[in-house]
Structure formats: structure tokens, C-alpha cells
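Predict structure. Chain length: 118.
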Amino acid sequence: MTRVKRGYTARRRRKKIRLFASTFIGAHSRLTRTTTQQRMRALVSSHRDRSRKKRDFRRLWITRINAVTREDRVSYSYSKLIKNLYKRQLLLNRKILAQIALSNKNCFDMISNKIQIK
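Prediction complete.
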């Protein structure tokens, strides 16, 4: 039976992990065990934060729309605007509404006046 050298496979696996963690600080980029732990932690965080990013952007758009909606009228709010949008079956998502509210306030006012139910 010939002798089997096992270095290549293990070295290749560790090298791949070390390349992933090359920007980490201190032992997190040098020691294999801590590098593996930090890699798992980083992947968990990135997976969690992908959905959190969507949530945060939606909150930002709602805040922007609400701020522009309340500027002129006292009793009008974001919730009433969205309710009227759905009643009129005008399909504009919050991202587009926020962009219109920031870049072209006259157009946003026209939309809100048009859909406002009296």
C-alpha cells in the first residue's frame, strides 16, 4: 500500500476560506478556526440583512411620502393617500411615489388632488 499525502485537499479548502476572510481584522483573517467561524457569521448576517434592507427602504419611502403629503394639508396623511390610490385603482408602488415626491412635487400634488375623494 502506498502512502497517501493529504495536504492538497485540506490546503485548498482552507485557502478558499482564507480568501473569503482576507479583509477581516486580526486572527479572524489568519487562524483557520476563527476564520471559519467568522465566515459562517458573515454569511448569516448577509442573509439576514438582505431582507432587512428591503424593509428599511420601504420604511424610508413611506416616511418620504408622508412628509410630502402632510406639507400643505393638515388633515391629509399617508394612509389616506394610499387608501385613495387603491380605491381609484391607480397602481403606483411606494418607490415610484417617493421618487415623484422628491423630484417633481407638482406632479405629486396633481396625483394626490386627482385621487382625493370628496
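Summary: The first helix runs from residue 7 to 20.
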